[in-house]
Amino acid sequence: MSNLPNTRVGDMYELQLPVTIPPVVKTRVALFGTSADPPHNGHRSIVTTLGYQFDYVAVWASDNPWKVGQSPIGMRMDMLGLAIADLDTPGTVKLHPELSHPYTAVTLERARRLWPSAEFTFVIGADLVKQLPGWHRSADVIRWANILVFPRPGYGLYEEDLAELRAHGAQVAIATPLTQHHISSSTLRQGCPERPDEIPAVVQAYIQQNNLYPCPANSPTTP
Hints:
The chain is of the alpha/beta class.
């Protein structure tokens, strides 16, 4: 005998089927903070890759508590905004200065207030894989976000380091960038005449206008 409820309609009974509730689909938010000192086409490639894989990409310039002598964060935020302004991806890409904090756990607390129902993925470079377990409140970082690792020139990705992250409970994936740029911000700060196109033109104009640090003399072009 069926246990489904019946509704009286005149002298007839109409069978009422159970209502199917669709599963809740969480917004997939990628979180990408970078020193951006200066931002270059490698950063653009990362953000573009994320824009094709996530619904929303939040980007900001960050202060690394282990680094000294960084350019003013306001200027780095300006340059990063210029570097990503013209990216066209299926996912939304937006600069979020309010997420910037030296400690990732605080950034994630802020992100969770902005997007209470989102699924977060925190983006790091390969150079940070071994460091992450020692971060301030690393357990909260691992609990609140998946980890997506982008390869970096000069830094290997070792299975034992990834295994340690996973042993702490992290959900870790390795990214495949749409394009590879074997360059670093530190090299560009020292001047890189053999690779003048690695700094977007709008960013180089900002650097020259503000006399931030040595940069290529040639006018760069963006990809």
